[in-house]
Write a structure and sequence with these properties.
Blueprint: H1 4-12, H2 18-25, H3 34-46, E1 50-55, H4 63-82, E2 87-91, H5 102-115, E3 120-122, H6 130-142, E4 148-153, H7 159-165, E5 173-176, H8 191-207, E6 212-215, H9 219-231, E7 239-244, H10 249-257, E8 262-268, H11 273-281, H12 286-298
Parallel strand pairs: 1-2, 1-8, 2-3, 3-4, 4-5, 5-6, 6-7, 7-8
Helix pairs in contact: 2-11, 2-12, 4-5, 7-8, 8-9
Bound molecules: dihydroflavine-adenine dinucleotide.
Dihydroflavine-adenine dinucleotide is lined by residues 123-124, 151, 153, 174, 176-180, 215-218, 242-244, 247-248, 265, 279, 282-284.
């Protein structure tokens, strides 16, 4: 259970100096450049793990920045082909300009898809993006783009209705709890309610025949998911587990050894801050990391050299 100190630190994290955040969040991000991502993906592939590569860039406010992200994705697709990596792409629509101009974002997404031979997953961001993200996904699918998937968040009260509304598309869905802080009116607040909705959503998606990426590190949910997959008679090619780079690596290895498909989310890029902050905020041992980083710098020789 998160203790008081951890909770206080989570609230104060935005005030922690960026270099400290960078050091302790290193494990969650492959590095600043594409070769960093390729190196990490190669290692994961060698260990039998699939990957999805994310070009970090959600803080975007200018069109030219979105166009640069589109180009960066084209470079990733080219690297995946050239280096024969077993990887998908994960894309945030705000990075492609969703908040600037919906149509501009559609064109950018089409451009990403045009360059990609691999499957492309549209990440789900905060609730101000949900409607536009789902409409854009539907639009792409109706235009015949089938190698594209969506994310649904178990914390949102609307999610079961969204699954019903998407039924005609038999969507490929990544199901996660949802990381964004949302108001009580639209989102479950208690961890048990979120878990319960996750299980209900997974059950419904499996019933509708969707391929599901079960994205969680929560042991209780992993076990419940395994039970549901068995009850629905799913073979190991008809679903996958997904985890974030740097989180529960040993458990991921166990799932692979047990014959499950397991995909690791590999983010890279210069715009690492917002993503890293979210990862640190959900790390239950955050206080310990910050303390050991600080002690490591104050006491020479402690905690390794940097
Ligand atoms: P929970 O947070 O309860 O974690 C369970 C356990 O995992 C913890 O007790 C701890 O042991 C470990 N753990 C979790 N996070 C950790 C961390 N950062 N550092 C160290 N240990 C940690 N969200 C979203 O809103 N939109 C999206 O598109 C995505 N995409 C996405 C892709 C993938 C592959 C994953 C795994 C997750 C996402 N998420 C996401 C994030 C998701 O919504 C959720 O916030 C996190 O997965 C944390 O929730 P868990 O289900 O892991 O449970």
């Amino acid at each position: 259970m998160t203790n008081l100190l951890d909770r206080a630190i989570v609230r104060l994290l935005p005030a922690v100096p960026r270099p400290v955040v960078r050091r302790i969040a290193n494990r969650y991000v492959a590095g600043p450049r594409l070769p960093d991502a390729c190196r990490v993906v190669r290692q994961l592939n060698t260990a039998g793990k699939l990957t999805t590569i994310d070009v970090l860039g959600e803080e975007i406010t200018r069109r030219e920045d979105s166009l640069a992200i589109v180009e960066a994705y084209a470079d990733v697709s080219e690297a995946i082909r050239r280096e024969r990596l077993d990887s998908n792409l994960s894309v945030k629509l705000t990075a492609l300009g969703l908040k600037l101009d919906y149509q501009f974002c559609v064109e950018n997404m089409e451009s990403v898809l045009e360059h990609a031979d691999e499957f492309v997953r549209i990440d789900m961001e905060d609730s101000t993006c949900t409607d536009d993200t789902l409409s854009l996904y539907r639009e792409l699918r109706l235009r015949g783009q089938d190698s594209v998937g969506i994310v649904l968040q178990a914390c949102l009260r609307r999610t079961l209705e969204d699954i019903e509304a998407l039924r005609d598309l038999t969507p490929n869905v990544r199901l996660c709890k949802g990381i964004y802080v949302e108001p009580r009116e639209i989102a479950f607040q208690g961890p048990d309610e979120v878990r319960e909705n996750f299980v209900a959503a997974l059950d419904l998606l499996l019933e509708h025949g969707s391929y599901v990426g079960i994205a969680t590190h929560d042991e209780w949910l992993i076990e419940e998911s395994l039970r549901l997959l068995e009850r629905h008679g799913r073979s190991s090619r008809e679903y996958e587990f997904q985890m974030l780079l740097g989180v529960r690596t040993a458990r991921a290895t166990e799932l692979v050894a047990a014959g499950h498909r397991l995909r690791v989310y590999v983010p890279f890029g210069e715009r690492w801050y917002a993503y890293s902050l979210r990862r640190l905020q959900e790390n239950p041992k955050i206080a310990g990391y910050i303390a050991s980083d600080t002690i490591g710098r104050l006491v020479p020789g402690h905690n390794g050299r940097r």
